[in-house]
Amino acid sequence: MKSVLDRFLRKQGKYRNDLNEANDMMASTSEDWDVRTYGFPLVPDDYHLQHVGKTVQGNGYWIDVQLATEEVGTRDFVAAYVFDGEGNLNSSEVVDRGLRTDNSAQTLEETIGKLKKKIDAKDVTEILVKPFSVSFYGHTFGLVVRETEEGDEASGETLIDAMPGHTLMFYGPWSLCNYNG
User: Fold this and answer.
1) Is the CA virtual torsion 85, 2, 179, 33 positive or negative?
2) pTM listed for this prediction
3) Among 49, 64, 95, 156, which residue's beta carbon has the most beta carbons within 10 A?
4) CB atoms within 10 A of CB 47
């Protein structure tokens, strides 16, 4: 089965028709892959990527559960992102579920269900995404490229964090959906 990234690259004319050459090309470039330009696939699974797929309109979507530590405690959020066919962010919405010490009026499943209905989520399938960030409630949300901090050993490897809680970290090779959660 070809990944959404393979299909995207073929559509963009980056691959030759010969599958063996395409696989060799992907293997040789996966370490230097410019994920900011070409993106990477999000593949639904039974763990952290349960809510990934296509909308009725054919756009990609991802609904992510996030948290942020604030002075008053830990705050929970549910973020819905919609992407175009090339993996660019089209729209986003974040629901503040409140502090963990508060009793939320809605369950997590109800919140996710309402967001799916609002964005017209239809199919669960892999999608292509590019790093992005948006601001809600004073926090940065999205898939943010990790910057090397002063004093860190420069490994040259690109890492992408799901923000604001650093709940997932994506890494290459970018033709696959590699993450730690």
Assistant:
1) negative
2) 0.82
3) 64
4) 9
Cis amide leading into 164 (omega within 30): yes
Token pair, residue 146, equals: 């990790």
Euclidean distance between CA atoms 181 and 179, whole angstroms: 6
Q: Are 2 and 23 in contact (CB under 8 A)?
A: no
Q: How far is residue 52's CA from residue 123's CA, in Å, rounded to a whole number?
A: 8
Least confident of 63-77, 120-134, 139-153, 157-171: 139-153
Beta bridge partners of residue 53, listed in sequence order: 61, 124
SS3 labels along the chain: CCCHHHHHHHHCCCCCCCHHHHHHHHHHHCCCCCHHHHCEEECCCCCCCCCEEEECCCCEEEEEEEEEEECCEEEEEEEEEEECCCCCEEEEEEEEEEECCCCCCCCHHHHHHHHHHHHCEEEECCEEECCEEEEECCEEEEEEECCCCCCCCCCCCCEEEEECCCCCEEECCCCCCEEEC
pLDDT in tens, 97-140: 999 888 767 899 999 999 999 999 999 999 999 999 999 999 99
Could you tell me if 120 and 53 are in contact, meaning their C-beta atoms sit under 8 angstroms apart? Answer: no
